[in-house]
Structure formats: structure tokens, C-alpha cells
Design brief:
This protein is an all-alpha fold. Helices cover 61% and strands 0% of the residues.
Length: 336
Amino acid sequence: MKTLKERTYAIEENFFSPYACMSEKTRGREREESSCEMRTEFQRDRDRIIYCKAFRRLKNKTQVFFSPEGDHYVTRLTHTLDVAQIARSIARVLALNEDLAEAIALGHDLGHTPFGHSGERILDKLSPTGFKHNVQSVRVADVLEKDGKGLNLTYEVRDGILNHRKSGTPATLEGMCVSIADRVAYINHDLDDAIRAGILTEKDVPVSVTEILGNSSRERINTAISSVYRTSYGKNKVEMDGDVAKASEQLRAFMFERVYLSDSARGEEEKAERMLTAMYGYFVENTEAMPQSFCNMIEKYGAEQVVCDYLSSMTDRYAVFTFNRIFVPQGWTLSK
């Protein structure tokens, strides 16, 4: 009698595209482990990511708007879930490995900073070696989780996380699914947030974009997935057709101009830069003030790297709390 995992292998062999990454043919992990009879290695990676501490912290990390007060603004966690859903949908229509696509998507932003991409730009300036959230996401998985032991993820998941940015070159089609899904997700939900915040209205979106992509997030996401299907099914590639890809880039450029690099966003970024710069300098000079788990890594990785690890791990709220605790005078009361 076949195990559940063996039945999964058989289903993949019978129904997946010849260009899919078969679970049975993974290049494996850096450290060998005993296998699971029920789950494939990519399914195990998915579970490890969901239950790690860095994943839970995403719920209080900024996507675009710093520490939004409303209940319905997107956070780094809800963005991650959006990407996972879209990536699975793309993998499904192309007969690729949904489990691998989902695992990559769930882990792609584990190393993101507080204060969104502003925080990333600030740490990139502060760190002597630079800072990129995709590289940090792999570092979280390899080094920082489980008190330095890491999650020991498979090669394919690590590669997809590292290469999920537009400039990346994923080794698998599933990694390409996540790269496209990330861009589709953030452009659309960031637009919804900007409209919710009163920064934009639906009428502000260029007609050249809405005529091709649609007038709502639902329509635009469906257009993107349908385009990928028409262009890539049965082929060793994952991409949108020319018109949809061009309109998507137009929408992305529009969002940078009107939202991401707007005066209001820049004003908040200046505040975040002052906070992170002050804390970076403080912890480099006072490494003992960091949690012991980070202090333990200083000898191996150096103070600057570990301070970046610590700051990038913070949620927006914890960063503000830590800054206030260090730099803002506390009220004094006479003890009784």
C-alpha cells in the first residue's frame, strides 16, 4: 500500500506539466533529515514557515501605510497571503507544483523591515554591506530562526525566496509564479489602500491601464492570471502577454509617482529614518542591550550585521516602543 506521500508523487507525475518541479526530485536540504511519510518536502517547508516567529511578526509590519489605524489596511502578512493565493492560482492553471509555489510565497518577505520599503532603504544606507529584504529573508530562514539553527528549507524554496524580486532569476517556474504574483498583489492592494486613505480615487487610474487590466482589483488580478495562462501554458516560461505586461508596468509607475514616493510618504520616511538611524548607532555601541539570542551571533557575524538582523526583525510598533524606551525621557514619580 502506497503512503500518502507516494500517492502525491504519482499524482504529480500524471498531471503536472513536464516543466514543473516534481516534489520527489527536490535538490534537498543543506542538512539531511529523516523524511515524512505523509508530506512532501515542499509541504514540510510550507508548515515550517507558517509556524516560525518571523512569519507571525508580519501581521504588525507595514506594507505601505505606517501603523495604519483602520482595520482593513494591508499589512505585510495579508500581502503575503495575497501572494500565496495568486501564486497558487498561477501554478494551478499552468499545471505546476502548487505546494512549492505556496511555500516560496509564504516565505518571500520573512526578512522585511519595519516601515515597509522605507525601512529597507534606510537599513541599506546604514549597513556597511547593504541590505536587501530578499537576501534577509533567506538569512532569516537559514540562520535567525530557531535560535540560530534555521529552518533548513529545501534548495528550491530558498532559491524562490531569494529571487522573487523582478530582477531575480528563479531556478523553477514555481519561483517565477511567485515573482509575478508578488507584483500583481502589491500593485492592486496598495491601490485599494491608497483609495481607502483618500490619496487616490478610482478615476485617477490612467484609462490606458483600466481599459486593459480592468476597473477593480478582482478584474485586474483575473486579467493577470488569464494572461499568464494564455502566454505560458505548456511552455517553459511564466510571463504575461505584452499588452497586459505593459499596462501592469504603467500601473506600477503610476503608484510610485502618486503613492510610494509622494510627499506624505516621504514625510513619514524621514521620521522612520531618524528612528532607525538612532537605534542602529545605539545598538552598535551597546550590543549588550539587544536580546541574548542576537548577542550570541556577534562574534560570528559582526555587530553591524547582527544589529541589522535585530532592527529588521522588529514590527513597526516594537520599533517605536524601543526607540521611545531608549531615547524619550520617562516621567518620574516618587516611589512609595
